[in-house]
Records
---
Amino acid sequence: MVPTPWQRCVQEAQLPQETAQRLNGLSIKKITVSQADHAWEISFANPFEVTETDRRLAEELLHNVFGKDLKFRLEFEKREKIPDLKGMLQDIDHSALELISVEAEDEICNERYREKIQQAGREPGEAKENRPQIILGKKIAGTPRPLCELQEESANCVVQGRVFKIKDCRKLKAGTMLYDFDITDNTNSIKVKMFIDPERNRKFNPEWLSSGSWYRFKGNVKHDQYTQELTLFPNDIMTVEVTGRIDDALEKRVELHMHTKLSAMDAVSTTEEL
């Protein structure tokens, strides 16, 4: 890259390296010679805030190149003062800082994420109990898979089902909560196991599980070495509202199914009688 005339002047002045690098950042935009006092008005483009020391060094450099008798008026662009980050860090009382664990930081991020999701999904007049609630982890996106498709181990599966046969819901000696129950989506059933540490999941409600309620799960399907069957180990859980089929037809219809003597089933009626 070919240096500009100003940069060549800085190089020839043999200034200290740090000072030369700073002055090299300047570039001359415009030079005007005043006829009244024979002064050179030089406008600079500066990517940083120019200090009084920078101004003095630039003026001395111009005098050394063009002579002491010339008069210079230097103009620089106005820039916002860059904060002294090093000084700000030195002023911080490090003894008063409280360092949190990675797990606690993740929990704070998840809590903020849950709040944003709940605020974004809130509809005017919508009842709070009707909105999906996050039980564990984050909001689950994606379409749930039918349980009948889970025939082998797989990761990050999204399923939903109705809870039944709650076998175990207790606190272990180590302080971990164990949940052992089954779910069904009316296509198949699968066992669900959870080990929750209350210290790492302080927002977790231990009384969330309810038989007959529908939930959506996201987690890994693995072969449980104790029960010797496929088991879902969820990482994210949220409530889900499942509505049954609604007959909104104005004229209702009823299906009539009957057998006659011609059927393979036992019957005493003939087709003519029907």
---
Amino acid sequence: MFTRVERARRIALAVILPSSALVLLTVLAAGCLDTKTVRAPAIGAAAPGFAAQDLDGNRVSLAELRGKVVVLNEWATWCEPCRGELPQLEALHQRFASRGLVLVGVSVDGAGMGADVRDFTREHGLHYPIWLDPEKQFALHFLTMGVPETFVIDRDGVIRWRKIGALPDGDTTLASAVQRVLGS
């Protein structure tokens, strides 16, 4: 028997990876991307453009955050590893928001789940902005492998750090990356 966490992880892998691959293959098959240039944005490269809606239905975009240090965390309410890293992300937000950090959670929960995502964030005491991405555009632009995945983007819009998968309890690499990019 699998534990609840193992079962959730297997379900997430069974759903997210094939759907991410399907999106990529669909784009490639449609001729929208040249297969020689399809690669995830690298550390030191400009972050791709990305827009979504916030929990109030307002259009928001990464371009609007230019000039600020940004942490983007792709996650979902059904993802156990995502849930496990939420306290660390909230603590990071509380610690660095006054110094100019903007932490954004990009929820890939399905269409029509905005109210559920809002309830979830309240129940878990999250105070940073949440953007809704039910069409998985973030995954398409950033070529993510699933959830969770986290990026640190500097004031000039350049990716400075990336983590595929959940932050382990007590991990300090994200906080260190944020401190470096904030200039402390």
---
Amino acid sequence: MKPEMTKSKVRVLIVDDEAAIVEEFAEFLTDLGFACDWETSADRGLERLKQTGYSHLFLDLRMPGMDGLSLLEQLEPGMLRDLKVVVMSGHATEMDDSRVHEKGIFAFMPKPIDLKRVVKLLSPTEDGSNT
């Protein structure tokens, strides 16, 4: 049984090309006591992931340039094992959905973002699972 992850141990990275939404999302998480960083491109998000240890990644599926799944493909398998990835999209297709599940992501979240669900995803139950 895993111990419950406290807010101080949750470190979140948000990668989404919509700056206003990302800033508001990050401010919401910070106000709740979570450590939170953000980037507006997959390239910069990838660099952050390589430099900083995060417990959770909220990742937009579709962005200009490198998309979210391409970012995941560039991560080393060891990084993905310890990172809970939540893929977000307002334009997901069935093909995107199947590609996301092939990557073994933690959760899929349609946009607009449900902030109550975000809090649940960041607050695991005592057995380490999320509902």
---
Amino acid sequence: MSKKHKRLPEMEAFFWALVKAIKAEKAWLNINKSIDSCMSDIDNSVQVSSERLMLRPIRIEDSGLVFAYRSNSMVNQYQGWIPVTIDDVRDFIANRTSPEINLPGSWFQFVILKNDDNELIGDVGVHFFDSDGFQAELGCTLNSDYQGNGFATEALTGVINFLFTRLNKRRVIASIDPRNLKSIQLFERLGFRKEAHFKQSLFINGEWVDDLIYAVLKDEWNSGG
């Protein structure tokens, strides 16, 4: 066989490898376009402001900053979701949070920014679990570098006011691991009542855990508890 004929299988193999690479690149571009399209639908006019903070909808470009504090498994040991890679955060933003607020069955995610330097220091999730539209669940995660300064209380106060006044909710709840004493104290300071203690009702991070339900009604909130 001539050298020319010997090179044909090599050229064919190179050709198909090139085709495979091009297809992979196109698939990655389509994924990015899909993410961009999804996130462009977010209503960025939804904002909550307070004296020191501004809360806005989470964006895909927040992934790195969110991963930096959310991935700390010691600080967030009672969280139901701890990302292992930054891609986990990107997937969370693109596929597990809603671009539309107040959509039944969805989670809407705010990020918390400091007004003085625009630093992203945490996030607040709102779960619109009630199909009738009168209730919501809250969750808050704060970068450990900024804990102990009242930021979580301030951020949650703003979101609760937003839920009761702008979205006309009647009841807001929080689901808390009984071992998470800091979160219990936080929601008690906000005027939430303990309504229930469910024994080993949730399977989180490989173990069955208890679940405390704290809640506040709109009338209670408006009257200062």
